[in-house]
Amino acid sequence: MDQGDSRQRTALHIPAPQDAAPHNDSLRQAVVMAGAVLGLAGAFIGSGAAGGTPMPEVSGGALAADATLIAPGGPAFAIWTPIYAGLMAYAVWQLLPKQRTDARQRRLGYPLALSLLLNAAWILSVQFDLLALSVPIIAALLVVLVWVLRIMRETRPKNRVELGLVDVTMGLYLGWVCVATAANVAAVLVAAGFTGFGVSPDIWGVAVIVVAGLVGVGLAIYDRGRFAPSIALCWGLGWVASARLTGDLVSTPTAITAILAGVAVFAVTAVARLHARTGAAAAPRGSGVAA
Q1: How many domains in the chain?
Q2: 3-state SS of the chain: helix, strand, coil percent to 5?
Q3: Domain range spanning residue 97?
Q4: Is residue 284 part of a domain?
Q5: Helices H, strands E: what count in the chain?
Q6: Which of the ends of the chain has fewer CB neighbours closer than 10 A, N or C?
Q7: Contact at 8 Å (CB) between 182 and 229?
Q8: In this structure, what is the dihedral angle of CA atoms 238, 243, 249, 250, given to the nearest 10 degrees?
């Protein structure tokens, strides 16, 4: 009966059910590539290179380095160079035939593409002075990147190329967005005239940095010491400290807290990594590359 059914499908030119998978995989690959192109286009607009307003100047300077106590110094944004380079390289790499039916890429593809679209949407929101809209967008981006982290935690890269293009790139992306979310929320509140209920700005600055540090510690413990998110988060905290010590908006308590938070995040990450490796060494050897 199976042979007859097969002959009948051939005669009627009806594809077998499994033939649908390559089509869906090709669509996923195309969506990821399109998302990467849109993300890169958004980056050019946000830099001012394609006619857009440079980020420090949007919304009357609400995102400038001296706009709030949580704003990182300008050089911090250089981290977007390796992030965008990694995302574009991944978009090209995942087009290769070997990645088309890869189980890990099937899980990562659409969430990763969604993160790129949300990033482009965030850039457009601030470019059009829709600063309040940027908060739910960047919050959604953070949720999606945590989703990506969960997938990376549950799966393993096949080799070091995938480790670099996927795990390192997305880890840097997540770590930076953690800092950017805190800075974004602070910028929106200040632009809206929030006065802190009479509480000192320094206290608010310290409190927000502590929350960002706790998020970094939580990620390090959850993901067993993945260094990429911690490096990006520490990078952002370091530039927050620099801006508060040397910029126009000085806050020594915020700067010191940012430094201590960065040290704590890195230390917890190192301990979690060591613990994970010790546990892996005691367990039966598996396959794949540790992220």
Answers
A1: 1
A2: 80, 0, 20
A3: 28-278
A4: no
A5: 11, 0
A6: N
A7: no
A8: 60
User: Which one, of 218, 201, 202, lies nearest residue 261 by Cα?
Assistant: 218
The model's pTM = 0.87
Per-residue model confidence as pLDDT tens digits over 132-189: 999 999 999 999 999 999 999 999 999 999 999 999 999 999 999 999 999 999 999 9
State residue 282's pLDDT score. 64
Q: Is 10 within the bounds of a domain?
A: no
Tens-place pLDDT, residues 6-39: 555 444 544 444 444 445 899 999 999 999 999 8
| Residue 152, domain member (yes or no) | yes
Radius of gyration from C-alpha coordinates of the chain: 22
Unique residue bearing structure tokens 């993300």: 39
d(Cα 105, Cα 107) in Å, to the nearest integer? 5
Asked if residue 47 is part of any domain, the answer here is: yes
Residue type, 113: A
Cβ 65 vs Cβ 243: under 8 Å: yes
Q: Which residue has the tokens 């195309």?
A: 30
Residue appearing with tokens 């700067």:
255
Burial class from Cβ neighbours inside 10 Å (0-12, 13-18, 19+) for residue 156 reads middle
The C-alpha angle 85, 32, 184, rounded to 5 degrees, equals 65
> Which of 248, 252, 232 minimizes the C-alpha distance to 68?
248
